[in-house]
Amino acid sequence: MKKELDVSNLDDLDLAVKEILERLESVDSNSAQVLALYGDLGAGKTTFVQTLGRGLGIEETITSPTFVIMKLYETEGQEIIKELVHIDAYRIELVDEMRVLGFAELLQRKGTIICIEWADKISELLPPHTFHLNLSLDGDKRILKIDDSNAS
Fold first, then answer.
1. What's the CA gap between 42 and 142, in Å, rounded?
2. 101 — phi, psi (to 5°)?
3. May I ask the CATH class of domain 2-146?
4. In the chain, where are the structural domains located?
5. Which residues contact 27 (CB under 8 A, 6 or more apart)?
6. What span, in angstroms and rounded, lies between the C-alpha atoms of 124 and 128?
7. What is the pTM of this model?
């Protein structure tokens, strides 16, 4: 599915996240689901992850893992999705740095959603079934482009 949504306000973003979660839960996968997030600084990547976390029942405050690279959160009250992994690849210079984080092992965790900000920095490591989400600003609008055509 390729889709473009106006997510200029948080209600619209909530609806988009619900739609994405439904799609993620419908994909039969024995591994983690990966959401590759693209967009300029301030486009809303972290806000997207925060909204996703709320949708998964995570009460802990979700902040950008810019300096620690990765943060893990356990979901509450979810049957299928048990864990959210938030990665900020902005500071990654060599894809080999992802090995230290156990990225290959994370990809094997069923019931896990991995959100990767600045995913273009590690594009060669992304699995074929990755959901690609591009956030951009268009005047007063915030646009979310979803491409999950390879995610089935």
1. 10
2. -80, -5
3. alpha beta
4. 2-146
5. 33, 129, 151, 152
6. 10
7. 0.93
Rounded to whole angstroms, how far apart are CA atoms 134 and 101? 24
Contact 50, 84 (CB under 8 A): no
The C-alpha atoms of residue 86 and residue 21 are separated, in whole angstroms, by 16
Residue-wise pLDDT tens digits, 84-141: 999 999 999 999 999 888 999 999 999 999 999 999 999 999 999 999 999 999 999 9
Strand positions, DSSP E, the chain: 2-6, 33-38, 70-74, 83-88, 112-117, 131-138, 141-147
| Bridge-based pairing state of the strands 131-138 and 141-147 | antiparallel
Tokens of 39: 């967009």
Q: Is 107:31 a contact under the CB 8 Å cutoff?
A: yes
Judged by DSSP in three states, 101 sits in: coil
Distance CA 25, CA 74 (A): 16
Q: How far apart are CA 149 and CA 146, in angstroms?
A: 9
Look up residue 15 and give its two tokens.
């609806």
Give the type of residue at 95: V
**CB–CB of 117/46 below 8 Å?**
yes
- Provide the token pair at 81: 């999705």
Q: Are 61 and 73 in contact (CB under 8 A)?
A: no
